[in-house]
Amino acid sequence: MNIALSAVIISILLIPPIIFYLSFYLGKYPRAIPKFTLFEGILGAAVFSLFVHALATHYFISSEIRYDILIKLLGGELKDLEKKVPDNEFQAALSDFALYNLCLNAAMVVLGRCFRQILLWTGWHAKYPVLNLYNKWWYLFNGFYNGIKDPDLIFIDLVVDTNESTVIYSGYLANFDFTNGELERVYLQDTLKREFIGTGKTGQDANEVNTTEPYAIPGDIFSIAYKNILNINIHFISFDNSLEEIEQLPDATTEDTPGTGA
Amino acid sequence: MTNVKLTSKGQAFLAKASSSMALAKKIASKGSGLLSKEGIVVEVGGKSVSARSFANKNFQVK
After folding, report:
1. I need a surface site. Which of A14, A52, A200, A232 has the fewest CB within 10 A?
2. Least confident stretch, A143-157, A222-236, B21-35
């Protein structure tokens, strides 16, 4: 019983850094959660808790702190507690402890969101990997790894190995799903399919990829699971045309369009 | 709701079914042209659209 009470109090004291972490990372496109063992998690939270409580008690608590009660509770020495600490004092200390934790946890939520916002404003989240807010796929597909800002379109080639042959699917990236920071599905628009024949043998030819002519896959959106993809080639496309010129382009679907190179 | 950030030009282009498919076919056929200074030019219905990729320039910097 005494050990259980100590464990509850220690757990309460470990909560602030965990709340800060959750508040900081909570958002769209989250990065993968680091894999900690229970021991590593408790140890990490304990170290940060020590600093958080030291700062909070030093700078923000002006009234007397009843460390004597806290130490007795943590140590499980409850035998003579009722004799040394009157009920009204214990109740006041308990209320103060509850209020202290409530305020501290609320401050951790605010600090976590503020720190996240600072990283977004300064762009440091994309500059320093340790400060990444989003998962690596979000940074890759939005051009951050290549220093490309605001591409008009993203065109990707997906190499897929089927039982019969190796196939390349190409199209405009429409969307992508991920689970715990890992890519799960990719969605393409205006999807084309071609079969991989091979690469050149020597010199410059070695970099050339030989494929069959691409043909369109009917449908609005093409979806493929990442587990089936061997590799991905990404083109970040920018148009020289203005928005007005693009809006004047024809939009009727035709089977064969002149000048397509297909 | 999509996880991909596209510009208004990109979104407008994707709404043009025949034009976007024409460019997709050309990139799939001759994708390396995207990396050149001139990029790729596609003509659809008497109008032309020019697309380039920035990747080459940035890879050279690295």
Report:
1. A200
2. B21-35
How far is A101 from A228, CA to CA, in rounded Å? 49
Mean pLDDT score of chain A: 84
> Which residue in A17, A51, A26 sits closest to A113, CA to CA?
A26
pTM, 2 dp: 0.72
pLDDT of residue B35 exceeding 70, the answer is no
- HSE of A179, CA atoms in CB hemisphere, 13 A: 5
pLDDT digits (tens, 9 = 90+) for A87-143: 888 888 889 999 999 999 999 999 999 999 999 999 898 888 888 888 888 888 888
Q: Does A244 touch chain B (CB under 8 A)?
A: no
Q: Is A153 within 8 Å of chain B by CB?
A: yes
Q: Which of A155, A168, A178 is opposite residue B24, by nearest beta carbon? A: A155
Distance between CA atoms of residues A70 and A12, nearest Å: 12
Span A144-161, pLDDT tens digits: 877 777 888 888 889 888
Task: Determine, for residues B17 and A151 on separate chains, whether the beta-carbon distance falls below 8 Å.
Answer: no
* Helices and strands (H and E) in chain B: how many: 3, 2
CA distance linking residue A31 with residue A40, whole number of Å: 20
User: Which of B12, B29, B40 is CA-nearest to residue A152?
Assistant: B12
What gap in Å lies between CA A197 and CA A223, rounded to an integer? 23
For B25, the token pair is 């076919």
Q: Are A160 and A167 in contact (CB under 8 A)?
A: yes
3-state secondary structure of A93: helix
Query: Dmax of chain A from CA atoms?
Result: 95
d(CA B21, CA A253): 9
